[in-house]
Every structure is written in C-alpha cells, then in structure tokens.
C-alpha cells in the first residue's frame, strides 16, 4: 500500500477587489470547508506543489495567467484529523503544512475537479467555516489586516 506524504501545502486564494477568500467543500467530508491544500509529491518542492494543487483544484494556472503566488515562508506542524489518518503510514499522526497566498484581482468561478462546491467569503466567515485550525490561523494572520 502506498501512503500519503505528511508534508503538504495550504494556498489561500483571495480576491483583492472584495477581500474575500475562496473556500472549497471537501468530497470525502462535505462538512469540511478549506482553502486549496495538497500533498507534496516525491521530488517536488512546496512551491511546485502549490502551483500544481491550485491548478488541479481550481483550474487557475498561475504562470499562464501571469499571477503571483507568494510563499509565506511559514510552516506549521499539526495533528492529522482522525478521519483522514488512514491515508498515512500507521505511525504517522502529525503533518507539516507550508503556507502560500494567491491574490486575484477579482473573484472567479473556479473549475472544481476535487471538491463539491465553492464559496467566496469574508475573512470572518471563512475562519468560522473551516474546521482546520491551521487554515483559520493562516487566513487571520495574512488577511485580517486587509479588511
């Protein structure tokens, strides 16, 4: 069996025109809303993973659209939610997440391939909606001052 790497990325996508954050509804847990996330694959650097995951999960091609993806140069360790631990090797309980920001000029309709739905929410609503403490912290830390 092939297990997931416990190194991942979190990419917060927000619209500068509205200061709202893009939130995505997970397929494997519809009560779980989050920003773009993804596992770092073998041979990838976190920045490359962030680019790939944004394209896979939203259809946004950062390079083709001449956008700027910002590395927050911050990573956090967290305990993996119990309902997702089966994806990792039996002795893995913690993961490390590397944070990125992707500002867009305006809100877009993402092309969803891995999620059920999306919402553009203000910072407070996004923080309340996500079940991920890391996601909430990153949104608060990097976007609260812009509202």
From TrEMBL:
UniProt keywords, alphabetically: Hydrolase, Magnesium, Metal-binding
Domain of life: Bacteria
GO biological process: AMP biosynthetic process; ATP biosynthetic process; folic acid biosynthetic process
Regions annotated as coiled coil: none
An example Gene Ontology molecular-function term: dihydroneopterin triphosphate pyrophosphohydrolase activity
Residues involved in Mg(2+) binding: 53, 57, 114
Cofactor: Mg(2+)
Entry note: cofactor: Binds 1 Mg(2+) ion per subunit.
Pfam families from the UniProt entry: NUDIX (PF00293)
Record domain Nudix hydrolase: where: 4-143
Residues binding substrate: 4, 26, 37, 78-81, 132
Keyword Iron-sulfur assigned: no
InterPro entries linked to this entry: DHNTPase, NUDIX_hydrolase-like_dom_sf, NUDIX_hydrolase_CS, NUDIX_hydrolase_dom, Nudix_hydrolase_domain
Keyword Cytoplasm belongs to the record: no
The protein, known as: Dihydroneopterin triphosphate pyrophosphatase
Record lineage: Bacteria, Pseudomonadati, Pseudomonadota, Gammaproteobacteria, Pasteurellales
């Amino acid at each position: 069996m092939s297990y997931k790497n416990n190194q991942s990325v979190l990419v917060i996508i927000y619209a500068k025109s509205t200061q709202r954050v893009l939130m995505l509804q997970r397929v494997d847990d519809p009560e779980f809303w989050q920003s773009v996330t993804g596992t770092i694959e073998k041979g990838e650097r976190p920045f490359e993973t962030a680019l790939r995951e944004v394209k896979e999960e939203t259809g946004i091609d950062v390079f083709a659209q001449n956008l700027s993806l910002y590395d927050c140069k911050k990573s956090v360790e967290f305990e993996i939610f119990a309902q997702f631990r089966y994806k990792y090797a039996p002795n893995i309980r913690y993961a490390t997440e590397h944070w990125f920001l992707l500002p867009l000029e305006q809100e877009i309709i993402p092309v969803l391939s891995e999620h059920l739905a999306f919402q553009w929410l203000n910072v407070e609503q996004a923080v309340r909606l996500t079940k991920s403490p890391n996601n909430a912290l990153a949104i608060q830390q990097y976007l609260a001052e812009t509202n």
